[in-house]
Design goal:
By secondary structure, this protein is of the alpha+beta class. The protein is 21% helix and 27% strand. The strands form two sheets. A five-stranded mixed sheet has the order 5-6-7-8-9, covered by helices on one side. β1 and β2 form a beta hairpin. The radius of gyration is 19 Å and the shape is elongated. The chain starts with 9 loop residues before the first strand and ends in a 5-residue tail after the last strand.
Length: 179
């Protein structure tokens, strides 16, 4: 009986975009998919120009099997592992658009109907407060647009039908700050 050969590892440029900045690494893994399956809230950067720029930076290089050596990566690994086996894990991944009804963390009477792209970044949003028609904004209004982790099962319960989002979008008023 022989052991299966271990898949060869390649070096990938990885970003954890937390909004006001980001953490970057080179991670050695058998595939980009392995990185995404292992760590929450990261993206593998494939743009050749971005990769070429990063070649000039002094970035840590970490093996996928040794993430414990980096506190930030081990935290993102632990976060992914904490909800990997929950119902709904990964249910929103691979879609062209995802629409969610997200409650405000600060205001009880405010909700956000949000359209996300396949990378988890905000595309359009309707802010609903009280009985008004809402205010619509799009990604051009957001200088900071970190992605959400579409693998996170908590977002499945927030999902809404595209028609509900489009109806709210069509009724909403433009952001007065943009006029």
């Amino acid at each position: 009986m022989t052991d299966s050969p271990t898949p060869a590892k390649s070096r990938y440029l990885v970003l954890h975009d937390y909004g006001m900045g980001g953490l970057w690494w080179w991670i050695r893994a058998s595939s980009a998919r392995q990185i995404i399956d292992t760590c929450a809230e990261v993206e593998v950067i494939t743009d050749p120009e971005a990769v070429a720029r990063a070649e000039t930076w002094s970035l840590d290089e970490v093996d996928i099997d040794a993430l414990s050596a980096d506190p930030a990566l081990s935290g993102l690994r632990d976060k992914r592992e904490a909800y990997r086996h929950e119902p709904g894990y990964g249910a929103l991944v691979g879609r062209d658009r995802v629409h969610l009804d997200m409650p405000s963390e600060d205001e009880d009477d405010t909700r956000y109907l949000v359209e996300f792209g396949p990378d988890g970044r905000w595309l359009r949003q309707v802010t609903l407060t009280g009985d008004g028609p809402g205010i619509r904004t799009d990604s051009a209004n957001w200088p900071i647009n970190p992605p959400i982790d579409l693998y996170d099962p908590r977002y499945v319960a927030m999902e809404i039908d595209v028609s509900r989002f489009e109806d709210a979008w069509s009724r909403a008023l433009p952001d007065p700050d943009d006029l």
